[in-house]
Amino acid sequence: MLEKKSKEMSQLEMISIEEFVPKDHLLRKISKAVDFDKIYDFVENLYCLDNGRPGVDPVVLFKMVLIQHLYGIPSLRKTAEEVKMNIAYRWFCGYLLNEQTPHFSTLSRNFKHRFNEEVVEEIFFWILSEINGAGYLSPEAVFIDGTHIKANANMKKAVKKAVPEAAKVYEEQLLKEINEDREKHEKKPLKDKNGKDGGNRSDKKTENPTDDPTKVENAKAKEVTVSTTDPECGVFHKGEHKKCFAYAAQTACDKHGYIMDFTLNPGNVHDSVAFDGLYDKLTERFKKIKYAVMDSAYKTPWIAKKVIDDGRIPVLPYKRPMGKDGFFRPYEYVLDEYYNCVICPQNKVLNYSTTNREGNREYKSKGYICKDCPNRAKCTDNAKCEKTVTKHIWLDYLEQVEDIRHTAGMKELYDKRKETIERVFADAKEKHSMRFTYFRGLSQVSKWVRLKFAAMNLKKYAMHRRNRGVFTCFFAAFDRYWLFAA
To answer: How many angstroms separate the first and last alpha carbons of the chain?
Structure first.
Protein backbone atom coordinates (compact mmCIF):
# COMPACT_ATOMS: atom_id res chain seq x y z
CA MET A 1 0.00 0.00 0.00
CA LEU A 2 2.82 2.39 0.92
CA GLU A 3 4.71 1.49 -2.28
CA LYS A 4 1.60 2.19 -4.37
CA LYS A 5 1.09 5.54 -2.64
CA SER A 6 4.74 6.63 -3.14
CA LYS A 7 4.52 5.60 -6.80
CA GLU A 8 1.38 7.71 -7.28
CA MET A 9 3.09 10.67 -5.53
CA SER A 10 6.11 10.35 -7.85
CA GLN A 11 3.86 10.27 -10.90
CA LEU A 12 2.04 13.39 -9.69
CA GLU A 13 5.36 15.12 -9.05
CA MET A 14 6.61 14.17 -12.52
CA ILE A 15 3.50 15.65 -14.06
CA SER A 16 3.86 18.82 -12.02
CA ILE A 17 7.56 19.40 -12.90
CA GLU A 18 6.77 18.73 -16.54
CA GLU A 19 4.07 21.38 -16.49
CA PHE A 20 6.37 23.95 -14.92
CA VAL A 21 8.75 23.92 -17.90
CA PRO A 22 7.43 26.08 -20.78
CA LYS A 23 6.81 24.31 -24.08
CA ASP A 24 9.16 26.66 -25.97
CA HIS A 25 11.99 26.53 -23.39
CA LEU A 26 15.50 26.29 -24.86
CA LEU A 27 16.29 23.12 -22.90
CA ARG A 28 13.24 21.40 -24.42
CA LYS A 29 14.50 22.25 -27.91
CA ILE A 30 17.99 20.96 -27.07
CA SER A 31 16.59 17.78 -25.56
CA LYS A 32 14.77 17.06 -28.84
CA ALA A 33 17.74 17.99 -31.03
CA VAL A 34 20.16 15.19 -30.05
CA ASP A 35 20.14 11.85 -28.25
CA PHE A 36 22.33 12.36 -25.18
CA ASP A 37 22.60 8.59 -24.63
CA LYS A 38 25.39 8.68 -27.20
CA ILE A 39 27.63 10.09 -24.43
CA TYR A 40 27.72 6.64 -22.81
CA ASP A 41 29.78 5.37 -25.76
CA PHE A 42 32.42 8.07 -25.23
CA VAL A 43 32.89 7.48 -21.48
CA GLU A 44 32.38 3.72 -21.27
CA ASN A 45 36.08 2.94 -20.80
CA LEU A 46 36.38 5.52 -17.99
CA TYR A 47 34.10 3.62 -15.58
CA CYS A 48 34.56 0.30 -13.81
CA LEU A 49 31.56 -2.04 -14.04
CA ASP A 50 32.22 -4.22 -10.98
CA ASN A 51 34.13 -2.07 -8.52
CA GLY A 52 33.62 1.05 -6.40
CA ARG A 53 30.53 2.93 -5.33
CA PRO A 54 27.71 3.75 -7.76
CA GLY A 55 28.66 6.83 -9.73
CA VAL A 56 26.62 9.76 -10.95
CA ASP A 57 25.23 9.27 -14.44
CA PRO A 58 27.81 10.76 -16.88
CA VAL A 59 25.00 12.11 -19.06
CA VAL A 60 23.76 14.11 -16.07
CA LEU A 61 27.25 15.50 -15.48
CA PHE A 62 27.57 16.60 -19.10
CA LYS A 63 24.10 18.11 -19.05
CA MET A 64 24.98 20.13 -15.94
CA VAL A 65 28.14 21.48 -17.57
CA LEU A 66 26.14 22.17 -20.72
CA ILE A 67 23.78 24.30 -18.61
CA GLN A 68 26.78 26.20 -17.25
CA HIS A 69 28.01 27.14 -20.73
CA LEU A 70 24.56 27.72 -22.24
CA TYR A 71 23.64 30.30 -19.64
CA GLY A 72 27.10 31.73 -18.92
CA ILE A 73 27.26 30.57 -15.30
CA PRO A 74 30.79 31.45 -14.11
CA SER A 75 31.67 28.41 -11.97
CA LEU A 76 30.76 24.75 -11.41
CA ARG A 77 29.84 25.49 -7.77
CA LYS A 78 27.32 28.09 -8.90
CA THR A 79 26.05 25.70 -11.59
CA ALA A 80 25.37 22.98 -9.00
CA GLU A 81 23.40 25.48 -6.91
CA GLU A 82 21.38 26.64 -9.93
CA VAL A 83 20.53 23.08 -10.94
CA LYS A 84 19.35 22.41 -7.40
CA MET A 85 16.98 25.42 -7.39
CA ASN A 86 15.87 25.76 -11.03
CA ILE A 87 12.96 23.55 -12.09
CA ALA A 88 13.85 23.66 -15.81
CA TYR A 89 17.41 22.59 -15.04
CA ARG A 90 16.13 19.74 -12.85
CA TRP A 91 13.80 18.61 -15.63
CA PHE A 92 16.64 18.68 -18.19
CA CYS A 93 18.91 16.60 -15.93
CA GLY A 94 16.11 14.17 -15.00
CA TYR A 95 15.70 15.02 -11.30
CA LEU A 96 12.39 15.33 -9.46
CA LEU A 97 11.79 18.08 -6.90
CA ASN A 98 12.41 15.73 -3.96
CA GLU A 99 15.65 14.21 -5.36
CA GLN A 100 19.15 15.20 -4.39
CA THR A 101 21.19 16.70 -7.25
CA PRO A 102 24.96 15.99 -7.61
CA HIS A 103 27.34 17.92 -5.39
CA PHE A 104 29.61 20.42 -7.15
CA SER A 105 32.74 18.52 -6.01
CA THR A 106 31.58 15.47 -7.98
CA LEU A 107 31.11 17.64 -11.02
CA SER A 108 34.47 19.36 -10.58
CA ARG A 109 36.50 16.21 -9.95
CA ASN A 110 35.07 14.36 -12.95
CA PHE A 111 35.79 17.18 -15.39
CA LYS A 112 39.27 17.74 -14.01
CA HIS A 113 40.50 14.16 -13.66
CA ARG A 114 38.21 11.78 -15.56
CA PHE A 115 36.81 13.44 -18.68
CA ASN A 116 40.01 14.26 -20.56
CA GLU A 117 40.50 16.37 -23.70
CA GLU A 118 39.92 13.37 -25.96
CA VAL A 119 36.45 12.68 -24.51
CA VAL A 120 35.42 16.34 -24.70
CA GLU A 121 36.68 16.52 -28.30
CA GLU A 122 34.68 13.42 -29.25
CA ILE A 123 31.52 14.97 -27.81
CA PHE A 124 32.20 18.25 -29.64
CA PHE A 125 32.60 16.52 -33.01
CA TRP A 126 29.60 14.25 -32.33
CA ILE A 127 27.41 17.36 -31.97
CA LEU A 128 29.01 18.78 -35.13
CA SER A 129 28.31 15.54 -37.02
CA GLU A 130 24.65 15.73 -35.96
CA ILE A 131 24.53 19.28 -37.34
CA ASN A 132 26.22 18.18 -40.55
CA GLY A 133 23.90 15.19 -40.91
CA ALA A 134 20.89 17.48 -40.64
CA GLY A 135 22.26 19.60 -43.49
CA TYR A 136 23.01 22.78 -41.54
CA LEU A 137 26.82 22.78 -41.80
CA SER A 138 28.40 24.50 -44.83
CA PRO A 139 32.15 23.79 -44.83
CA GLU A 140 32.81 25.23 -48.31
CA ALA A 141 33.85 28.59 -46.80
CA VAL A 142 35.53 28.80 -43.40
CA PHE A 143 35.99 32.04 -41.47
CA ILE A 144 39.15 32.04 -39.34
CA ASP A 145 40.12 34.47 -36.60
CA GLY A 146 41.54 34.56 -33.09
CA THR A 147 40.27 35.98 -29.81
CA HIS A 148 41.95 36.43 -26.44
CA ILE A 149 40.67 35.03 -23.14
CA LYS A 150 41.99 36.61 -19.97
CA ALA A 151 43.86 34.04 -17.89
CA ASN A 152 43.52 33.39 -14.17
CA ALA A 153 46.88 34.98 -13.42
CA ASN A 154 48.12 38.26 -11.94
CA MET A 155 50.59 40.43 -13.86
CA LYS A 156 52.37 41.20 -10.57
CA LYS A 157 53.25 37.54 -10.09
CA ALA A 158 55.61 37.09 -13.00
CA VAL A 159 59.29 36.52 -13.78
CA LYS A 160 61.51 37.23 -16.77
CA LYS A 161 62.86 34.16 -18.57
CA ALA A 162 65.08 33.62 -21.58
CA VAL A 163 63.49 31.05 -23.89
CA PRO A 164 64.59 29.87 -27.35
CA GLU A 165 62.66 31.35 -30.26
CA ALA A 166 60.10 28.90 -31.58
CA ALA A 167 60.93 27.43 -34.98
CA LYS A 168 58.50 28.34 -37.74
CA VAL A 169 56.56 25.50 -39.35
CA TYR A 170 57.82 26.45 -42.79
CA GLU A 171 61.42 27.17 -41.76
CA GLU A 172 62.94 24.15 -43.52
CA GLN A 173 61.02 24.73 -46.74
CA LEU A 174 61.85 28.44 -46.73
CA LEU A 175 65.57 27.78 -46.19
CA LYS A 176 65.59 25.34 -49.10
CA GLU A 177 64.00 27.86 -51.46
CA ILE A 178 66.27 30.64 -50.18
CA ASN A 179 69.33 28.57 -51.00
CA GLU A 180 67.94 27.71 -54.43
CA ASP A 181 67.52 31.41 -55.04
CA ARG A 182 71.02 32.17 -53.74
CA GLU A 183 72.46 29.46 -55.98
CA LYS A 184 70.88 31.10 -59.03
CA HIS A 185 72.65 34.31 -58.07
CA GLU A 186 75.93 32.48 -57.31
CA LYS A 187 75.76 33.08 -53.57
CA LYS A 188 76.90 30.69 -50.84
CA PRO A 189 74.10 28.63 -49.24
CA LEU A 190 72.92 29.56 -45.77
CA LYS A 191 73.29 27.19 -42.85
CA ASP A 192 70.44 25.94 -40.73
CA LYS A 193 70.29 26.40 -36.95
CA ASN A 194 72.45 23.32 -36.42
CA GLY A 195 75.16 24.69 -38.68
CA LYS A 196 74.38 22.21 -41.48
CA ASP A 197 74.18 23.18 -45.11
CA GLY A 198 70.56 23.80 -46.04
CA GLY A 199 71.06 24.17 -49.76
CA ASN A 200 72.02 22.15 -52.81
CA ARG A 201 75.70 23.11 -52.84
CA SER A 202 76.92 20.79 -50.08
CA ASP A 203 79.80 19.64 -52.29
CA LYS A 204 81.40 23.11 -52.09
CA LYS A 205 83.73 23.65 -49.15
CA THR A 206 84.25 26.81 -47.18
CA GLU A 207 87.73 27.86 -46.24
CA ASN A 208 87.10 28.12 -42.49
CA PRO A 209 83.67 27.17 -41.08
CA THR A 210 84.22 29.27 -37.97
CA ASP A 211 84.74 32.39 -40.09
CA ASP A 212 81.86 31.66 -42.45
CA PRO A 213 79.24 34.45 -41.97
CA THR A 214 76.50 32.19 -43.32
CA LYS A 215 76.87 29.73 -40.44
CA VAL A 216 74.25 30.07 -37.72
CA GLU A 217 74.59 29.19 -34.07
CA ASN A 218 71.90 27.48 -32.03
CA ALA A 219 68.44 29.01 -31.83
CA LYS A 220 68.46 32.56 -30.53
CA ALA A 221 66.98 33.19 -27.10
CA LYS A 222 64.47 35.91 -26.31
CA GLU A 223 63.33 37.29 -22.97
CA VAL A 224 59.65 36.83 -22.14
CA THR A 225 57.44 37.49 -19.12
CA VAL A 226 56.19 34.24 -17.58
CA SER A 227 53.45 33.94 -14.96
CA THR A 228 54.37 32.07 -11.81
CA THR A 229 50.69 31.21 -11.32
CA ASP A 230 49.97 29.84 -14.80
CA PRO A 231 53.20 29.42 -16.80
CA GLU A 232 51.34 28.25 -19.92
CA CYS A 233 49.58 31.55 -20.63
CA GLY A 234 51.24 34.55 -22.29
CA VAL A 235 51.26 38.35 -22.05
CA PHE A 236 48.70 40.07 -24.27
CA HIS A 237 48.91 43.78 -25.02
CA LYS A 238 47.32 45.36 -28.07
CA GLY A 239 46.22 48.93 -28.71
CA GLU A 240 44.24 50.34 -25.80
CA HIS A 241 43.87 46.97 -24.11
CA LYS A 242 45.38 46.70 -20.66
CA LYS A 243 48.40 44.41 -20.49
CA CYS A 244 47.38 41.05 -19.02
CA PHE A 245 48.06 37.32 -19.12
CA ALA A 246 45.79 35.59 -21.62
CA TYR A 247 45.14 32.66 -23.93
CA ALA A 248 44.45 32.99 -27.65
CA ALA A 249 41.76 30.81 -29.24
CA GLN A 250 42.19 30.40 -33.00
CA THR A 251 38.68 29.56 -34.20
CA ALA A 252 37.00 28.61 -37.46
CA CYS A 253 33.29 28.66 -38.29
CA ASP A 254 31.10 28.23 -41.37
CA LYS A 255 28.75 30.78 -42.96
CA HIS A 256 25.96 29.87 -40.50
CA GLY A 257 28.16 30.52 -37.47
CA TYR A 258 28.71 26.87 -36.48
CA ILE A 259 32.14 26.48 -34.87
CA MET A 260 34.08 23.84 -36.78
CA ASP A 261 37.23 23.66 -34.65
CA PHE A 262 39.72 25.72 -32.66
CA THR A 263 43.23 25.62 -31.21
CA LEU A 264 44.40 27.22 -27.98
CA ASN A 265 47.74 29.02 -27.65
CA PRO A 266 49.43 31.37 -25.17
CA GLY A 267 48.29 34.97 -25.52
CA ASN A 268 51.63 36.17 -26.90
CA VAL A 269 51.44 33.97 -30.02
CA HIS A 270 50.52 35.95 -33.13
CA ASP A 271 47.54 34.88 -35.23
CA SER A 272 49.70 34.21 -38.30
CA VAL A 273 51.96 31.88 -36.26
CA ALA A 274 49.04 29.96 -34.75
CA PHE A 275 47.32 29.59 -38.14
CA ASP A 276 49.05 26.37 -39.23
CA GLY A 277 47.81 24.27 -36.31
CA LEU A 278 44.17 25.16 -36.91
CA TYR A 279 44.34 25.03 -40.71
CA ASP A 280 45.92 21.56 -40.73
CA LYS A 281 43.22 20.20 -38.41
CA LEU A 282 40.45 21.75 -40.49
CA THR A 283 41.66 20.51 -43.87
CA GLU A 284 42.23 17.02 -42.49
CA ARG A 285 38.66 16.73 -41.22
CA PHE A 286 36.75 18.83 -43.78
CA LYS A 287 37.87 18.03 -47.33
CA LYS A 288 35.23 20.27 -48.95
CA ILE A 289 36.78 23.55 -47.78
CA LYS A 290 37.20 25.85 -50.78
CA TYR A 291 37.56 29.35 -49.29
CA ALA A 292 39.58 30.44 -46.25
CA VAL A 293 38.37 33.89 -45.15
CA MET A 294 40.73 35.74 -42.79
CA ASP A 295 41.61 39.27 -41.70
CA SER A 296 44.81 41.21 -42.46
CA ALA A 297 46.76 39.60 -39.58
CA TYR A 298 46.96 36.44 -41.71
CA LYS A 299 48.17 38.21 -44.85
CA THR A 300 51.69 36.78 -44.91
CA PRO A 301 53.63 35.17 -47.78
CA TRP A 302 53.63 31.76 -46.10
CA ILE A 303 49.88 31.62 -45.42
CA ALA A 304 49.11 32.80 -48.97
CA LYS A 305 51.44 30.13 -50.38
CA LYS A 306 50.14 27.34 -48.16
CA VAL A 307 46.46 27.91 -48.95
CA ILE A 308 47.00 28.44 -52.69
CA ASP A 309 49.32 25.43 -53.06
CA ASP A 310 46.67 23.42 -51.22
CA GLY A 311 44.20 24.13 -54.05
CA ARG A 312 42.09 26.48 -51.95
CA ILE A 313 41.29 30.18 -52.21
CA PRO A 314 42.49 32.64 -49.52
CA VAL A 315 40.14 35.61 -49.11
CA LEU A 316 42.08 38.42 -47.45
CA PRO A 317 41.50 42.20 -47.22
CA TYR A 318 43.59 45.14 -48.34
CA LYS A 319 46.55 45.78 -46.04
CA ARG A 320 48.15 49.20 -45.94
CA PRO A 321 51.84 49.00 -46.91
CA MET A 322 54.16 49.45 -43.96
CA GLY A 323 56.64 52.34 -44.10
CA LYS A 324 57.86 55.47 -42.36
CA ASP A 325 55.74 58.60 -42.42
CA GLY A 326 57.01 61.12 -44.92
CA PHE A 327 58.91 58.49 -46.93
CA PHE A 328 58.08 56.88 -50.27
CA ARG A 329 55.71 53.92 -49.96
CA PRO A 330 57.05 50.41 -50.72
CA TYR A 331 54.81 50.04 -53.79
CA GLU A 332 56.53 53.08 -55.37
CA TYR A 333 59.64 50.95 -55.82
CA VAL A 334 58.83 48.84 -58.89
CA LEU A 335 60.32 45.37 -59.35
CA ASP A 336 61.64 44.57 -62.83
CA GLU A 337 61.66 40.77 -62.90
CA TYR A 338 63.29 40.53 -66.32
CA TYR A 339 66.41 42.46 -65.32
CA ASN A 340 66.11 41.45 -61.64
CA CYS A 341 66.30 44.97 -60.30
CA VAL A 342 64.13 47.61 -58.66
CA ILE A 343 63.32 51.03 -60.11
CA CYS A 344 62.99 53.83 -57.57
CA PRO A 345 60.57 56.83 -57.90
CA GLN A 346 63.44 58.83 -59.48
CA ASN A 347 63.91 56.10 -62.16
CA LYS A 348 67.22 54.95 -60.71
CA VAL A 349 68.20 51.28 -60.61
CA LEU A 350 68.65 49.30 -57.38
CA ASN A 351 70.61 46.13 -58.16
CA TYR A 352 70.21 42.72 -56.53
CA SER A 353 72.50 42.27 -53.53
CA THR A 354 71.57 39.07 -51.71
CA THR A 355 68.71 36.90 -50.38
CA ASN A 356 68.58 37.05 -46.59
CA ARG A 357 67.49 34.48 -44.05
CA GLU A 358 63.94 35.88 -43.84
CA GLY A 359 63.42 35.08 -47.53
CA ASN A 360 63.71 38.67 -48.75
CA ARG A 361 65.71 39.57 -51.83
CA GLU A 362 67.67 42.74 -51.09
CA TYR A 363 68.13 45.39 -53.77
CA LYS A 364 70.59 48.20 -53.03
CA SER A 365 71.30 51.54 -54.65
CA LYS A 366 74.66 53.18 -55.25
CA GLY A 367 75.56 55.73 -52.60
CA TYR A 368 77.33 58.07 -55.01
CA ILE A 369 74.18 58.22 -57.19
CA CYS A 370 71.73 58.77 -54.31
CA LYS A 371 73.96 61.34 -52.62
CA ASP A 372 72.79 64.19 -54.86
CA CYS A 373 69.16 63.00 -55.25
CA PRO A 374 66.68 65.83 -54.53
CA ASN A 375 64.26 63.36 -52.88
CA ARG A 376 66.84 61.53 -50.75
CA ALA A 377 65.16 62.76 -47.54
CA LYS A 378 61.97 60.96 -48.62
CA CYS A 379 63.84 57.80 -49.60
CA THR A 380 66.52 56.94 -47.04
CA ASP A 381 68.30 58.30 -43.98
CA ASN A 382 71.23 55.90 -44.38
CA ALA A 383 74.61 57.44 -43.55
CA LYS A 384 76.10 56.02 -46.75
CA CYS A 385 73.16 57.33 -48.79
CA GLU A 386 72.24 53.78 -49.77
CA LYS A 387 68.65 52.62 -50.15
CA THR A 388 67.77 48.94 -49.55
CA VAL A 389 64.48 47.55 -50.86
CA THR A 390 63.34 44.02 -50.01
CA LYS A 391 61.04 41.75 -52.03
CA HIS A 392 60.04 38.35 -50.66
CA ILE A 393 60.70 35.23 -52.73
CA TRP A 394 57.01 34.32 -52.25
CA LEU A 395 55.80 37.73 -53.39
CA ASP A 396 53.93 36.15 -56.31
CA TYR A 397 51.52 34.49 -53.88
CA LEU A 398 50.63 37.81 -52.28
CA GLU A 399 49.99 39.23 -55.73
CA GLN A 400 47.64 36.30 -56.42
CA VAL A 401 45.83 37.14 -53.18
CA GLU A 402 45.36 40.70 -54.45
CA ASP A 403 43.92 39.37 -57.72
CA ILE A 404 41.51 37.15 -55.74
CA ARG A 405 40.46 40.15 -53.64
CA HIS A 406 39.26 41.93 -56.78
CA THR A 407 37.40 38.86 -58.10
CA ALA A 408 33.61 39.07 -58.22
CA GLY A 409 31.95 37.90 -55.00
CA MET A 410 35.06 37.94 -52.81
CA LYS A 411 34.27 41.28 -51.17
CA GLU A 412 30.76 40.06 -50.26
CA LEU A 413 32.24 36.85 -48.86
CA TYR A 414 34.77 38.76 -46.73
CA ASP A 415 32.01 41.06 -45.45
CA LYS A 416 30.30 38.00 -43.94
CA ARG A 417 33.00 37.88 -41.25
CA LYS A 418 31.01 40.31 -39.11
CA GLU A 419 27.99 37.97 -39.21
CA THR A 420 29.98 34.79 -38.61
CA ILE A 421 33.28 34.62 -36.74
CA GLU A 422 33.02 38.07 -35.17
CA ARG A 423 29.46 37.28 -34.07
CA VAL A 424 30.69 33.99 -32.59
CA PHE A 425 33.25 35.81 -30.44
CA ALA A 426 30.75 38.50 -29.42
CA ASP A 427 28.16 35.91 -28.34
CA ALA A 428 30.78 33.80 -26.56
CA LYS A 429 31.93 36.74 -24.47
CA GLU A 430 28.64 38.54 -23.89
CA LYS A 431 26.26 35.59 -23.47
CA HIS A 432 28.49 32.67 -22.49
CA SER A 433 31.11 34.24 -20.15
CA MET A 434 34.23 33.67 -22.26
CA ARG A 435 35.96 36.96 -21.43
CA PHE A 436 38.06 35.29 -18.75
CA THR A 437 38.64 31.80 -17.37
CA TYR A 438 39.05 30.46 -13.86
CA PHE A 439 40.97 27.42 -15.15
CA ARG A 440 44.74 27.21 -15.51
CA GLY A 441 46.90 25.39 -18.03
CA LEU A 442 46.39 24.80 -21.74
CA SER A 443 44.72 21.41 -21.20
CA GLN A 444 42.07 22.59 -18.73
CA VAL A 445 41.35 25.86 -20.54
CA SER A 446 41.13 23.99 -23.87
CA LYS A 447 38.47 21.63 -22.46
CA TRP A 448 36.58 24.59 -21.03
CA VAL A 449 36.57 26.44 -24.37
CA ARG A 450 35.59 23.32 -26.34
CA LEU A 451 32.63 22.65 -24.03
CA LYS A 452 31.57 26.29 -24.43
CA PHE A 453 31.73 26.04 -28.23
CA ALA A 454 29.86 22.71 -28.15
CA ALA A 455 27.08 24.37 -26.13
CA MET A 456 26.92 27.29 -28.59
CA ASN A 457 26.69 24.91 -31.55
CA LEU A 458 23.97 22.88 -29.86
CA LYS A 459 21.98 25.99 -29.00
CA LYS A 460 22.12 27.25 -32.59
CA TYR A 461 21.25 23.79 -33.94
CA ALA A 462 18.22 23.49 -31.64
CA MET A 463 16.96 26.92 -32.73
CA HIS A 464 17.45 26.11 -36.41
CA ARG A 465 15.54 22.82 -36.03
CA ARG A 466 12.73 24.58 -34.23
CA ASN A 467 12.50 27.35 -36.86
CA ARG A 468 12.45 24.84 -39.68
CA GLY A 469 9.64 22.99 -37.94
CA VAL A 470 7.64 26.21 -37.59
CA PHE A 471 8.05 27.02 -41.29
CA THR A 472 7.13 23.46 -42.26
CA CYS A 473 3.91 23.64 -40.22
CA PHE A 474 3.11 27.06 -41.68
CA PHE A 475 3.49 25.94 -45.29
CA ALA A 476 1.59 22.70 -44.59
CA ALA A 477 -1.33 24.71 -43.16
CA PHE A 478 -1.11 27.12 -46.10
CA ASP A 479 -1.32 24.22 -48.58
CA ARG A 480 -4.34 22.71 -46.77
CA TYR A 481 -6.09 26.09 -46.82
CA TRP A 482 -5.78 26.41 -50.60
CA LEU A 483 -6.71 22.77 -51.07
CA PHE A 484 -10.07 23.23 -49.27
CA ALA A 485 -10.58 26.69 -50.85
CA ALA A 486 -10.28 25.14 -54.26
So the answer is: 61
